[in-house]
HMGXB3 protein
Amino acid sequence: TSSPLPAPKKPTGVDLLTPGSRAPELKGRARGKPSLLAAARPMRAILPAPVNVGRGSSMGLPRARQAFSLSDKTPSVRTCGLKPSTLKQLGQPIQQPSGPGEVKLPSGPSNRTSQVKVVEVKPDMFPPYKYSCTVTLDLGLATSRGRGKCKNPSCSYVYTNRHKPRICPSCGVNLAKDRTEKTTKAIEVSSPLPDVLNATEPLSTAQREIQRQSTLQLLRKVLQIPENESELAEVFALIHELNSSRLILSNVSEETVTIEQTSWSNYYESPSTQCLLCSSPLFKGGQNSLAGPQECWLLTASRLQTVTAQVKMCLNPHCLALHSFIDIYTGLFNVGNKLLVSLDLLFAIRNQIKLGEDPRVSINVVLKSVQEQTEKTLTSEELSQLQELLCNGYWAFECLTVRDYNDMICGICGVAPKVEMAQRSEQNVLALKSVEFTWPEFLGSNEVNVEDFWATMETEVIEQVAFPASIPITKFDASVIAPFFPPLMRGAVVVNTEKDKNLDVQPVPGSGSALVRLLQEGTCKLDEIGSYSEEKLQHLLRQCGIPFGAEDSKDQLCFSLLALYESVQNGARAIRPPRHFTGGKIYKVCPHQVVCGSKYLVRGESARDHVDLLASSRHWPPVYVVDMATSVALCADLCYPELTNQMWGRNQGCFSSPTEPPVSVSCPELLDQHYTVDMTETEHSIQHPVTKTATRRIVHAGLQPNPGDPSAGHHSLALCPELAPYATILASIVDSKPNGVRQRPIAFDNATHYYLYNRLMDFLTSREIVNRQIHDIVQSCQPGEVVIRDTLYRLGVAQIKTETEEEGEEEEVAAVAE
């Protein structure tokens, strides 16, 4: 674990946030909820918010509307059972009446005269598949990802078609005028034209808050960074050219010689003259004004110098957004007008993190390399300032990167793996010296709002970039911490019951399995335990193997029984984390080591954490492999009795009844075979979409018998012959590359960075595996075949048949008929 870096002291200030500053891609969620962030000076706190029952929109999904160019000669797919949304993804015509979901768009700035039909695609039905990696793989689709030019004739801004901004970052022209916005802008007001702000007077506290919200909204709206390095190839070439700093001789004559220098500028400002949010005029001031020039570091691979960054401010009192230099296609990323860092350095940091390196170590390596290249020595104060700016800037860069977290779903297992294996990372922790976790004083809902939690984490780091003097979050309500799932693998309800976890519960004598069986049979009812006679209580204690004395009172007998119940419900005994650190994380992977879900622990790990992870999944796996199988199964029986009754009845997650000797059980549904997807099944059916059965098991791969757990033998993976190959897979995980990266010890001081880092690592390590799967399938594709995702998001191959081939077949059929 690397030692924490020194951070300069920050001044305190008013720092409120509301969900209004959320990214535009989340604006489709209409919910009147308070923010997770609240004011608590001198520290920032994350507080609980009401939960929203229901799935809501999937976080990280691309926009719901996606344009598909439908040409006159559209190839068709020669495949059986492709659903309409898959055909849309392949660009196939769908025979359906036109409705309100289709709109006509006028042609763009190119010379095309045809119109584009925009087809409404529901992302929950079939999210558009995209992926990116360091190598460009041809999926066989004839896509055209060129470039477009700003509609303003006097502007030379060029964008990639795939990442066309809504507003030109150069001149402010609306490049999406033809699109209907889903929601109105946050700064719109019902009053007539607002009064223009007096730029000579300082802003009030309320005005500074308006400015904060508007500036964050502006960054979210304009800054959309492509994830794939190949899409920024021209930007990287520009960075390399400017780093080279060439001298060019031109207009050479007998009398004059003109010298032109190609290098980085010493002055940066937004070219906009109107607000990119409300079109109000922008104010550009001088030193010590509301929007004046600021001294700023310029950091590239071969440059480390101070430059000037000019700020502009919207004069609309209802907006007041700060406009800085934010054109990433110039190769620079602006960190609060304190640091302009070249994009290639941020991508280099990401690539090192992908290998398992501590982000702070990667940042130090970059700064050390630049100092060596420039032969510039920084003071300790300057180095500390640059480290903090670059660290905050990097995480904001990741949060502003356009990313679909469904890209990390395994291409073989899809959203419903048949077997999932539990993993833990006890040394991936958050230090408690700079953050305080609080717990609710009253018992509330166990449900957590996943989208709001991650939105808060993202907004926090973007705010740290927009306003470097902001105070970071130092106080968390631990009960609102949400797990991370790819959106399509997340359940309708996501829970975190860690607030109910009791670290003081000690192991108690007795059989939890026997107690659960008595509760299932109705022999023991906890709500009636006070009315039981001493004789009945003693009989129940004997059945559960709980020792008691003849002189024990009725209350003592009840306490012994309840103590065993609490121990089982608590997930047996929670492991205490090291002092001053959180409990690490647990996560589950499919047999291909793709992460299916992660949970971040504040208190020590217990069986109920695994139950939370399973209950929050869209599909509870038919087989869950975990070393504490008995505790997980019994805890699930107590927490979700109706659900487990459908999944394993009274077998307590075993292959057979734990009251009888263990026997070998065949599970043919776990064999690899071709499955057809039944679209008539309901989304929340207990039946697994692949095995077509409601049966589930909680197993372990341990070979040694556990004398303290009589039912452990019934959970052994060796009892099922179809699971034999998975024992080898489990053994190979320990020495695998993904596991080595995920198990690197790391300790964070910043809570926001800790959660964002773990989400990023789950995504990067999983998508690397998925990219290899795609690459292997592409290599085996024949001409006319394309790679697709099916309903369960598994990779497949579809054949494309051109219209010429269709006409040829029709002629052959006609000839045969004659």
User: Anything to note?
Assistant: The chain is about 30% helix and 15% strand. Residues 751-780 form the longest helix (30 residues).
